[in-house]
Amino acid sequence: MANAPRIAEWIKERIRLKKAKPIPAHVNFFYCFGGVSLFLILLQLASGVFMLFFYTPEPAKALQSIAHLSNEVPLGWLFRNLHRWTSTLLLATVFSHMAIVFYLKAYQSPRQLTWLSGVSQLLLVFLLVVTGLILPWDWRSYWSFAIWMDYIGTWTIGGEFIQNMLLDSFTLNAAYFIHILIIPLFLAAILSFHFKMVRRHGISEPL
Question: Quick one: DSSP state of residue 180?
């Protein structure tokens, strides 16, 4: 057993293990919302991938496919409700994270880019919730889409143009691919950048 330390050191060197950075003493529960948000994003990813195999992005079949998933697919109801309720909880935790960061003034130099990437994540999560709400294409989806279009039309600058562009180009299939592909790719890229900034500048201390 005399060679055990040498073997451990050899393995450590080969896989390049690094000592974990100590957690600052001031970190408490309110610093955990970022990690909770990441966990919820992973839950959304897992449940969303499962639902991909059963959802049909066609107006006449969308609601029927969700009913089939919820009522006939084993554990389908669990994945559907997990995806639906986690999306609401995710929006709440990301917003809480941003509010706490703002309150602690952790957006100040040198963490401006960390803050901006966090705000971008909040907007993307919000878009995920909005586009996900449209996908069942039931009465709630239809009227939610109509309300958002009316709201965009009230914007002073470019509102009518954006409204007409969205109405002319809208299809359920387009909303589906924006929800499962376009927005998640942007979110993954910004998350990666956000984590790099957090690692570079560390966790801010209270002022």
Answer: I
Query: Residue ranges of the domains in the chain?
Result: 26-201
Residue with tokens 């992005």: 57
Residue-by-residue DSSP string for the chain: -TTHHHHHHHHHHHHT--PPPPPPTT--GGG-HHHHHHHHHHHHHHHHHHHHTT---STTTHHHHHHHHHHTSTTHHHHHHHHHHHHHHHHHHHHHHHHHHHHTTTTSTT-HHHHHHHHHHHHHHHHHHHHHHHTT-SHHHHHHHHHHHHHHHT-TTTHHHHHHHHHHH--HHHHHHIIIIIHHHHHHHHHHHHHHHHHHH-PPPP-
| pLDDT range class, residue 25, cuts 50, 70, 90 | low
Least confident of 15-19, 81-85, 109-113, 199-203: 15-19
Tell me: the pLDDT tens digits for 165-190? 999 999 999 999 999 999 999 999 99
Q: To which CATH superfamily is domain 26-201 assigned? A: Cytochrome Bc1 Complex; Chain C (1.20.810.10)
Instruction: Kindly report the average pLDDT of the chain as a whole number.
Output: 89
Q: Cα separation of 63 and 77, whole Å?
A: 14
Q: Give the whole-number percent of the chain exceeding pLDDT 90.
A: 75
